[in-house]
From TrEMBL:
Pfam families, alphabetized: KdgT
Key words, A-Z: Cell membrane, Membrane, Sugar transport, Symport, Transmembrane, Transmembrane helix, Transport
Transmembrane residue ranges: 12-32, 74-93, 99-122, 134-159, 165-184, 196-215, 221-242, 249-269, 281-305
InterPro entries, A to Z: 2keto-3dGluconate_permease
Keyword DNA-binding: no
Family the entry assigns: Belongs to the KdgT transporter family.
Signal peptide: none
Protein name from the UniProt record: 2-keto-3-deoxygluconate permease
Length: 311
């Protein structure tokens, strides 16, 4: 009965545990403070460890036999996301300035559309994609850390790039690529582990989310969430369909926001104090985007796929 329920929810293996984790963290945040073992799974360090394992597993699927097709798909998604972030970020900044519109500052808007939760992408790929889509997550992972946002902000003259962040992201992926290519058995073994990792990853992500953030983000947070998801249809979706020759769900799947996007306003304000006045509200709004996009993007990807199949 539970398995039938899960099948009705898009990317349920990650979304349901994520919501459960967020609910527990919102209502009883100290429930896991029993000791180091129980506390670890609900901590940022525990989440990072699971993300490292996930990235290693994803990297192992990027074998030489799959490299060309996976690299092609991943780069189209990556570059389309980057172009969208630069183009829309520039237009927003020029049209509305730092203050933005609807209470959404330029900082919050750019941070939202230039980030993604690669774990959600992997979860959706597991439901709707093939081995090439899963392997392409090694490329799209670049979008899931603040370095991609910093790069976008840097292009707009707002922030500097930290080279060590690139190395920090690349290490587990490169290790996975190495192990997956020297041992086919290792590649096949890790391919099967991802579906088991997803529920734990979703739960760990959820444990870092407080649902009260939605209230702090206000209406601006909801509007920003819709703008973030809507940005997928500007450049990424057409390119995924016409260049990758794919249905387009993957383009929608990269328009979530990872939990680390919430810290971007503080980091930018530290680099440029002139943004400090926007820091608090931008962080709250990004927190709303993290929650709302994690729920709506899998639904949007599923709905879009049904539309494509109906044609």
């Amino acid at each position: 009965m539970l398995s039938k329920f899960f099948k009705k929810i898009p990317a349920a293996t990650i979304i349901v545990p994520l919501f459960v984790g967020a609910l527990i963290n919102s209502l009883a945040p100290s429930v896991f403070d029993l000791g180091p073992m129980t506390k670890a799974i609900a901590s940022p360090d525990g989440l990072n460890a699971i993300i490292d394992i996930t990235l290693l597993a994803v990297g192992s699927q990027l074998t030489l036999a799959r490299l060309k097709k996976a690299l092609h798909r991943g780069l189209v998604l990556l570059l389309s996301k980057w172009l969208t972030s630069i183009a829309l970020g520039y237009i927003f900044f020029k049209a509305f300035g730092r203050n933005g519109i609807f209470g959404i500052s330029a900082l919050a808007f750019i941070a939202a559309i230039s980030n993604q939760n690669n774990s959600i992408f992997i979860g959706i790929s597991g439901d709707y994609g093939d081995e090439y889509d899963i392997a392409s997550a090694a490329i799209t992972a670049i979008i899931s850390v603040p370095i991609f946002t910093y790069f976008t902000l840097s292009m707009l003259g707002i922030a500097d790039i930290t080279p060590t962040s690139i190395l920090d992201l690349a290490m587990p992926i490169l290790l996975g690529i190495f192990l997956g290519n020297i041992d086919q058995g290792f590649c096949e073994f890790l391919a099967g582990t991802q579906k088991y990792i997803m529920p734990f990853l979703g739960f760990a992500i959820g444990c870092g989310i407080n649902l009260s953030t939605i209230l702090r983000g206000g209406a601006g947070g909801f509007i920003l969430s819709l703008l973030t998801i809507g940005a997928a249809f500007v450049i990424s979706l057409p390119l995924d369909i016409f260049i990758n020759k794919r249905p387009g769900w993957a383009a929608i799947a990269i328009y979530t926001a990872a939990g680390n996007s919430v810290i971007v306003p503080a980091l930018v304000a530290e680099l440029d104090p002139s943004w400090q006045a926007y820091e608090s509200l931008a962080a709250a709004q990004l927190g709303t985007v993290v929650i709302v996009s994690s729920i709506l993007v899998p639904l949007a990807a599923s709905f879009w796929l049904k539309i494509r199949k109906a044609k």
